Amino acid sequence: MLSVGVVGGTGYTGLELLRLLAVHPGASLDVITSRGNAGTRVDKLFPGLRGFNDLIFTEPKAEVLSDCDVVFFSTPNGVAMSMVPELLKSGTRVIDLAADFRLKDPAVWKQWYGMEHTCPELLGEAVYGLPEVNRAAIKNAQLVACPGCYPTAIQLGFLPLIEQQIVDSSRLIADAKSGVSGAGRQASVANLLCEVSESFKAYGVNGHRHIPEIDQGLNAISSDRVNVTFTPHLTPMIRGIHATLYAELTADVDLQAVYESRYAEEAFVDVLPEGSHPDTRSVKGANVCRIAVHQAKGARHIVILSVIDNLVKGAAGQAIQNMNLMFDQPEQDGLVSVPFIP
Amino acid sequence: MLSVGVVGGTGYTGLELLRLLAVHPGASLDVITSRGNAGTRVDKLFPGLRGFNDLIFTEPKAEVLSDCDVVFFSTPNGVAMSMVPELLKSGTRVIDLAADFRLKDPAVWKQWYGMEHTCPELLGEAVYGLPEVNRAAIKNAQLVACPGCYPTAIQLGFLPLIEQQIVDSSRLIADAKSGVSGAGRQASVANLLCEVSESFKAYGVNGHRHIPEIDQGLNAISSDRVNVTFTPHLTPMIRGIHATLYAELTADVDLQAVYESRYAEEAFVDVLPEGSHPDTRSVKGANVCRIAVHQAKGARHIVILSVIDNLVKGAAGQAIQNMNLMFDQPEQDGLVSVPFIP
Amino acid sequence: MLSVGVVGGTGYTGLELLRLLAVHPGASLDVITSRGNAGTRVDKLFPGLRGFNDLIFTEPKAEVLSDCDVVFFSTPNGVAMSMVPELLKSGTRVIDLAADFRLKDPAVWKQWYGMEHTCPELLGEAVYGLPEVNRAAIKNAQLVACPGCYPTAIQLGFLPLIEQQIVDSSRLIADAKSGVSGAGRQASVANLLCEVSESFKAYGVNGHRHIPEIDQGLNAISSDRVNVTFTPHLTPMIRGIHATLYAELTADVDLQAVYESRYAEEAFVDVLPEGSHPDTRSVKGANVCRIAVHQAKGARHIVILSVIDNLVKGAAGQAIQNMNLMFDQPEQDGLVSVPFIP
Amino acid sequence: MLSVGVVGGTGYTGLELLRLLAVHPGASLDVITSRGNAGTRVDKLFPGLRGFNDLIFTEPKAEVLSDCDVVFFSTPNGVAMSMVPELLKSGTRVIDLAADFRLKDPAVWKQWYGMEHTCPELLGEAVYGLPEVNRAAIKNAQLVACPGCYPTAIQLGFLPLIEQQIVDSSRLIADAKSGVSGAGRQASVANLLCEVSESFKAYGVNGHRHIPEIDQGLNAISSDRVNVTFTPHLTPMIRGIHATLYAELTADVDLQAVYESRYAEEAFVDVLPEGSHPDTRSVKGANVCRIAVHQAKGARHIVILSVIDNLVKGAAGQAIQNMNLMFDQPEQDGLVSVPFIP
Q1: Stretch 5-64 of chain B: residues touching chain C, C-beta under 8 Å
Q2: Are B198 and D238 in contact (CB under 8 A)?
Q3: Which CATH code, of 2.60.40.150, 3.40.190.10, 3.30.70.1060, 3.40.50.720, is assigned to A2-125?
Q4: What residues of C are in contact with residue A191 (Cβ under 8 Å)?
């Protein structure tokens, strides 16, 4: 039984980790930290966890966390990098759900996140935790950087096209829509129900932090330069990401077959029958990415639809998938759940 | 491994049965029927079930269903009574999630449901499936009538007061609010998103079918005549029932202790600390009723708050709890899930 | 043309004032203040007002506001009382949408609002701005205290019963449900979309600030002592209050006639046909309270349903109705709008 | 005062017509028809209209409607064409909110709408009611075909680019998101709250009826062949369309200036400051299209954001704008309303 610690257990990805770990057959959640709620019982703050979790939030301390086999960071950007070096030294493995270790170039990191990286020497060692691309490396990783939610949906959607070099990689468009939980659980006016329900908007059209991550990920597997125009939107619901991807085909292929073959062995990527329109609720609460491929006769663009639950395959579920791989547990352990409909 | 059949698998309670049975360790779902969708793969209609269910909807046939150990009916009122007698004769046990066997008096049934009961002889034999009241009888039952969603939340909320005879039982009020899934999955204008979202209303103030059920249930355990004024409301969300219960205390008791003691041994009823306000999301997707007790000093009325997920403890979850009891399986099998937050 | 000032124009009631005043035929909005946004164009913060409002938020200053004929305060509790004495001295009339002048007894005010009242001498002079009760006094008032949202819906619902002395006034129950805009536009975790959508809860069961206001209002018109058990709830939508009121009748009357006759001359109270169930969307955006009366044969309780838009008849609309009365304008000026459906 | 008739007053566009006409200073609504509700008072079906509308739904009859100056059809596709010829003959002018007269080519119409056009001779005479393009023709039109909701948002967004010939018109992408009211007010499972809330999906990726309309409209003003890839999506809210438009610039221009100059004289198109992200609530209930232009340095694609209320500028509001033009009334009559926030 793995001993697990969670740093930052009061945000939505942290809370989802608690939900998933509560029923994981091979993991024991032993430490949960929260600076703001230290001393409070977890199930007092989240009554839904009554009966599943009798822990008390504590201050994050490396000497306590280093007794765990693995520590998840579901903290604001910039927090993990201050504790990770010490944990790694003590032999504890780390899975970061924030952005601290996603980018390889510390200068790019600073440009997008507005702070100096404090342990750039770990950026090379950190493994980008997208199992469908990096499974082998993840198994041996001491430090895994979990992909962002948008990058997960978008990369899994574009992957077969890039790998097969069958599209004009300079003309990709990712029009993505996210539920509000992606914005986190901080006090703000912007994400009040009365501000975001019954409304829809784009944001960050001039630049979003997930752009360099998507660029890095897709260029790593491409021979040609990949250029993605990325537009994120906020849609009035709690969970879910829907990425609508546009590309121009440069070869005459059976797209459906390309996708089905690429993901045939992947437990958590589901290629739907041709002509499907996956709705985000078909993945709500589940660690799965569903993809549908549309190729109209004579059309300029193909359209790929890719949906995930941003808190599961886009965050906590993928983090546990990484943990399973790192500790040689069955990859699906703790992740077999039926999407929540209605 | 129990062999299970589900008659009527395309409504919301049927769909929730499919979700819960998919991960039940002791049950194998072998037959799903749907007149309207016979011949269609279940996971074509509900893509969220891909990988969990490869069955095909079939026409309901007693000779096929009678091979099952237990058959659930999640059908419109009046359907179950046409097939149940034959199934019982063949030795198959039945759990009805509709109203066909909830009321003991066929005249009352006819009055509220507008049709003649076709097997009134079974009404006496049918056990009302509220485990917190009828656990022993359920274990031996051939035919279980699952309680309605409102009656579950309301009876569990009033139970300790009635049993202890500490309130004026002629002056009870149940002001209850339900999510829209309680209205079912039929084509209708009334339950379109554009009709019910961003709005709140009462309905059936002049009489709702759950009134005779609540009356029957509470009077069965009361020495005094119980009279409940019941007002159902529709609230713009998918799942959840919140019952706000009012009563006038007639004795000087420690209410919190009364409730905690009554439900101390119940796995699926959770009495919250004094002064709590359970929100319905604290039970979303989980087979639990959470109750909070409010007794203001010098106040005329005590206020009891009782919340359930109408599709789980109010329908499919409670049905499986009954199945577990009927077949001597651990009562919590297949029902250990963390509420879904956010 | 009246010259109007609004102090606190960035909350939901302030914003609704801006929306309504923009099309009022007899009022010119000349000053809008906001400490936090002084210097910012109003239509930069609220692009929906582009073309309707080219003002700039300014710091609140009595010498500027006193040039207005009337000043609305849509500020947090405790702000208005610090500026109102000076404004009144200068001859400017004041309509306060907050609670500062609603209660007559400064000791009760302190008990519920946690601060000392700084101008208790004005409490006697302030007129409670419920036109259906105090129309004559409002016309001559220098200072009007607009009723709270819950108290508006609840008092209008109970009024005919109390005035006619036909119920047991010691046994009243008001089970009320509010949309989230009632909680205001402050940064908070509690009112994030991800916290309150898809969930329903009661709050303040042990005591809510609107209780003394309801008590004061109903007792003022009653010969017997009035006692109301009040339970507020939060329902996942933006606007709307639905009050479900319970009482025990003590006389044999035609309830429908009692209500229709009481409100026959009221432009903003609409008594629906017997047996109706008003939904809150039937008043969305409109300055109206719709009421339905339910009296089941032989039942213990009558049930009154009363709905308003909390931001209109429960706040900004009623404030403008008061302004119209104070300045001898037609009471409906600026308030003729069709509810917003769907 | 114009005498107005509405055929099909029970759908969402019909209902919005009733809301807007109720306060139009120059129009008197004299006839409302509904086959399904003939004989019912309008305000019985829609209590929100109590006090604004005391009409009774009648069967649609040409001899009655022909007494009106203008008749709006807010009916399912295919209904208007059966009555319009007779009305036109009698001198009544017609504004059709459905698709019957939008396409010029009856063969294309048949292909997309699945029925033979019964009065193709009127297709040439019908004026496409997009005032920002066809104002002069609308003024003299006997028959106006109101644009679809998506085509309104998309054409207004692309218009300046096409007119100025500054983009590769063969590579346009319109990724559009609509609230659920766009799907109409028919009984259906697909649009139940429990099916579409808390979920997001694309639909009709392989072909949507608005494609030929967009193609026809944009090609009519373009010298080069215009090709638009159009993907509609359903977003869980009632009203609003957000079109995210992608194009590749072929000239070095100041985009913001191009848009501001194009729409400088248009009362109902609002070009926001550079870098803006209009949310759909900024147009809720208002007859306006807000547009923002994004041109990142060195980027392949420019991004245009265009939002409307699908029921107002996308349907009923635009219909009234057309009526005002046809009858030489001020274009803004009855259309001056502040968007509804929150």
Answers
A1: none
A2: yes
A3: 3.40.50.720
A4: 192-194
Catalytic residues of A: 149
- How many residues are recorded in chain B? 342
Say which of C170, C175, C278 has its CB closest to residue B201.
Answer: C278
User: What's the alpha-carbon Rg for chain D, to the nearest Å?
Assistant: 20
Contacts of D22 in chain C (CB under 8 A): 338
Decide: pTM greater than 0.90.
Answer: yes
- Compute the half-sphere exposure of residue B158: CA atoms within 13 Å on the CB side of its CA: 37
Q: What is the ipTM of this complex?
A: 0.97
B194 to D198: CB separation less than 8 angstroms, yes or no: no
Task: Name the segment(s) of chain B with CATH classification 3.40.50.720.
Answer: 2-125
Residues of chain B with CATH 3.30.360.10: 149-310
Q: Is the pLDDT of residue D296 over 90?
A: no
**Tens of each residue's pLDDT in chain B, 342 residues:** 999 999 998 999 999 999 999 999 999 999 999 999 999 999 999 999 999 999 999 999 999 999 999 999 999 999 999 999 999 999 999 999 999 999 999 999 999 999 999 999 999 999 999 999 999 999 999 999 999 999 999 999 999 999 999 999 999 999 999 999 999 999 999 999 999 999 999 999 988 999 999 999 999 999 999 999 999 999 999 999 999 999 999 999 999 999 999 999 999 999 999 999 999 999 999 999 999 999 988 889 999 999 999 999 999 999 999 999 999 999 999 999 999 999
Which fold, C149-310?
Dihydrodipicolinate Reductase; domain 2 (3.30.360)
pLDDT tens for residues B171-207? 999 999 999 999 999 999 999 999 999 999 999 998 8
Chain D positions in Cβ-Cβ contact with residue B197 (cut-off 8 Å): 193, 197, 237-238
Task: Among C173, C237, C301, select the one facing B199 at the smallest CB separation.
Answer: C237
Query: How close does chain D come to A252, measured CA to CA in Å?
Result: 19
**Contact criterion met (CB below 8 Å) for D60 and D94:** no
Mean pLDDT of chain C: 97
**Two structure tokens written together for C46:** 């609220």
Asked if the Cβ–Cβ distance from D238 to B192 is below 8 Å, we say no
Strands B289-294 and A269-271: unpaired
Q: Is C229's CB within 8 Å of B246's CB?
A: yes
3-class SS of residue B250? coil
- Amino acid, single-letter form, for residue B321: Q
Q: Is C197 on the interface with A (CB under 8 A)?
A: yes
Give the nearest partner residue to B282 out of A18, A47, A341, using CB atoms. Answer: A47
A223 interface with D at CB cutoff 8 Å: no
Q: B257 and chain C: CB distance < 8 Å anywhere?
A: no
Contact C48, D339 (CB under 8 A): yes
| Interval C158-194: pLDDT, tens | 999 999 999 999 999 999 999 999 999 999 999 999 9
User: Measured between alpha carbons, how far is A83 from A37 in angstroms, rounded to an integer?
Assistant: 19
How many CB atoms within 10 Å of residue A139? 15
Q: Quote the distance between the C-alpha of residue D4 and its chain's center.
A: 19
Cis before C342 (ω within 30): yes
Shortest distance, CA C271 to any CA of chain D (angstroms): 11
- Report chain C residues whose CB lies below 8 A from the CB of B168: none
Yes or no, beta carbons of B194 and C278 under 8 Å apart = no
Alpha-carbon gap: A63 to the closest alpha carbon of chain B (Å)? 30
D339 and chain C in contact, CB less than 8 A: yes
CB contact under 8 A, D285 and C51: no
Distance separating alpha carbons of residues C72 and C152, to the nearest angstrom: 18
